[in-house]
Amino acid sequence: MKGIKRLLRVAIISFFSVAMLLSTLVAGAGLRLVAAGSVGVVYILTNTSTNNEVAIFNRASDGTLIAAGSASTGGSGSGAGLGSQGALALGRNNKWLFAVNAGSNEISVFDVNANGLTLVNKVASGGIRPISLTVYKKLLYVLNAGDPGNISGFTIGKKGELTPIAGSIQPLSNNGAGSAPGPAQVSFDPRGELLVVTEKVSNKIDVYAVDEEGVAQPPTIYNSFGATPFGFAFTKRGDLIVSEAAAGALSSYSVSDDSFEVNSGSVTTHQGAPCWVAVTKNGKFAYTTNAQSGSISGFRVAKDGLLSLLTPDGRTGVSGDNSSPIDLALSTDSQYLYVLTAGTHGISAFAVQPDGSLTPLAGVSDLPASAVGLAAR
Question: Which residues of the chain have pLDDT under 70?
């Protein structure tokens, strides 16, 4: 009798062990299927004043987005719009994600991993009200918009630690005196030899040469071709494409450490308040969001940097009435375009066709009203 009970107990234990194993395998297979279906990620900065966070959205193979949680920056946002492009920036090979904390004057660093984001570092921004970031290899620069405004540089360590670069803090066009001139964005050129800053109020574009140690030199100040230069992006050839919010246009420039030449001056979008800019990986197309018109304008970029509208009316894509499209970003392969809509608190998504046209996809909603910044991979 004891032998029978022992055999029965072993059988029961074996049954449950097999059942648990099968359950684990099935669950694991489900997790692998989810991971396999997610080919990229889109990040949004909530910019909330009490607990700034990065909202995470997995990108499916068809370009649609699925909410995947959030990660705290450990700092505070401004609680309102920043009037800038580049509040989030992905590092080299998408290893790190960098975020501004405009309310606590800090930069947060996240490790990008299979589990999402892990906060690994947080440092003072070197100024007041950081609003824009740019990364080139092991260098990071931040634009601080609070009076009097500046740029500040850091090196990126192997574990994501940021170390201030001695002598890297440089003023804007006001030379460190008085009110900041409404800076909007800072970005490296494709070779990491120059930094560019746009100034909305002064209508200036600042160009900083960067030496071999990563130290930015004092700026050379140029006049913007059109009024209110805002967001911008470089093509892979190095052409600088800048939006002009008041002019309702985009301009293109050839830039070096000693010259600043106009390729195309104020090519109209026929829309209202173009502010943010993205350029495809191949450099053939540029897109700008029209905050007043609820639309996206696409441009063809010629080899000589000349710009021409993809659609005569400038409405290459539509995010909807009262959507107030602001930040935008392309996926790493430039097959999908994502647009943050401040008016409807969501993300509009588009598939980018070979001719540059945009096909709308299902978007997402229910983002905080304070959300700014967008990065995609």
Answer: 1-38
